[in-house]
Design brief:
Layout: H1 2-14, H2 19-28, E1 32-34, E2 41-42, E3 47-48, H3 57-71, E4 76-81, H4 89-98, E5 102-108, H5 126-146, E6 150-153, E7 158-159, H6 167-183, E8 190-194, E9 204-205, H7 210-220, E10 225-229, H8 239-248, E11 252-257, H9 274-286, E12 295-298, H10 307-326, H11 330-339, H12 342-354, H13 358-367, H14 374-381, H15 383-390
Parallel strand pairs: 1-4, 4-5, 6-8, 8-10, 10-11, 11-12
Antiparallel strand pairs: 2-3, 7-9
């Protein structure tokens, strides 16, 4: 690996890439993994159990610690309430600290209770709206207790048929409910608002796209920001342009990274369209978004592949995509823009994308005390077999 890195560094230096600056940026990259991805999951057809799956949030953190141990850049774990509800959140926070982790974004659940059949915070009945608002306020309190600085909100609210509800009335109820939440939001906690064009609502989703999410954030004041889930777009949507637009308005809060072939598939980020992932990081580098605190969270469902290995592979993909974005010849790119040289501008991006940066990522991981080849190192560690032996009895964690 050292010889491969030396060869890569020589090539990058010849292209006037500041390898030391790139390395420093990769050292500073932070990825947040989701607690729910470590539990059993599936589709609407079936949930496929895997041996050694965590039985509670404490064991989920132990799995997340393995991802961080082998990648070096995944110290934060997002929680989902009530899936990760515990009697003592201070104890959960202490357990995370002991594992070298911290508790990340708190994600309220406003879609599984039977009362939410027709929506939550935009429901036509005030009692249901009160229930939804109270749950988000509870999650803000949990965030304070766990030391989290983000409450990340995704709503399933919407309608399945024309005539089921009034667009304007649902919007008004949504703004009214979320305004109450913003009023009690501490300065130390951010509110991220996520959008999705369909599912489970199939006619109209109350927060359907980035524009509706941005307008909602603006209506709620200067603090709320938009969260971009890569799988929450219609086919053909230019996600990297959305990233640039939101960042330009200082309303880009963070991401839920995943990939998809057809719908909201929640596959490993970069597994289907690695070029799109690279272009997203290109835009993040161009506007210094990571230095401004934009959050890189994973949101995936590993139904048939080993969960910890899949999460490790995802973090690797995010490392490599960021590294490729950092080595773009931006001087050449600016020259091409200024001169109207279409092909030269495109080639500046393609050249970086085609560069094998894995030796650089491996070197960074080694310097961070992690594994040069994280998946291989994890497989040889025996952790999965040990977890399967220990985690006998009880109920495996699951989103169902």
């Amino acid at each position: 690996m050292s010889a491969a890195y030396d060869l890569l560094a020589e090539k990058l230096n010849a292209r006037n890439v500041d390898v030391d600056a790139v390395t420093a940026a990769l050292h500073a990259q932070v990825v947040e993994t989701p607690s729910w991805a470590y539990g059993n999951s599936g589709t609407r057809f079936a949930v496929f159990a895997q041996p050694g799956v965590p039985r509670d949030p404490f064991e989920k953190l132990e799995d997340a610690a393995e991802v961080h141990r082998h990648t070096g850049i995944a110290p934060s774990v997002a929680l989902h309430i009530p899936w990760d509800r515990v009697d003592d959140f201070a104890a959960l926070r202490e357990h995370a600290n002991e594992l070298g982790l911290r508790l990340g974004a708190i994600n309220p659940n406003l879609f599984q209770e039977p009362e939410y059949k027709l929506g939550s915070v935009s429901h036509p009945h005030e009692a249901v709206r009160r229930q939804g608002v109270a749950h988000v306020v509870e999650c803000i309190e949990i965030a304070t207790e766990t030391g989290s600085d983000v409450v990340s909100l995704w709503l399933a609210d919407g309608t399945n048929y024309a005539g089921q509800g009034s667009f304007a009335a649902r919007r008004a109820r949504l703004v009214e409910s979320l305004s109450e939440i913003v009023e009690v939001l501490p300065e130390s906690i951010q509110l991220f608002i996520e959008y999705k064009p369909s599912e489970p609502a199939f006619y109209a989703t109350d927060i359907a796209d980035w524009g509706s999410a941005l307008l909602l954030c603006q209506a709620l004041g200067p603090r709320p920001k938009v969260l971009v889930d890569l799988g929450h777009h219609a086919h053909g949507v230019n996600v990297e342009q959305i990233v640039s637009l939101l960042a330009g308005e200082d309303r880009l809060g963070g991401f839920h990274f995943n990939d998809r072939k057809y719908g909201d598939d929640d596959l490993i980020a970069g597994a289907v369209d690695p070029f799109q992932l690279f272009l997203i990081f290109h835009e993040l580098v161009a506007c210094s978004a990571l230095e401004r605190g934009v959050r890189l969270t994973i949101d995936q469902s590993h139904n048939v592949e080993p969960k910890i290995e899949a999460m490790i592979q995802t973090v690797e993909n995010l490392q490599d995509a960021y590294a490729k974005a950092l080595i773009i010849d931006r001087g050449e790119l600016e020259r091409a823009h200024a001169e109207g040289d279409v092909l030269a501008g495109h080639r500046a991006l393609v050249d970086a994308f085609r560069t094998d940066v894995r030796p650089l990522s491996a070197k960074v991981r080694r310097e961070l005390g992690a594994s040069e080849d994280p998946v291989a190192a994890f497989r040889s560690s025996g952790y999965t077999a040990r977890a399967a032996e220990i985690r006998i009895g009880g109920k495996a964690a699951s989103w169902t």
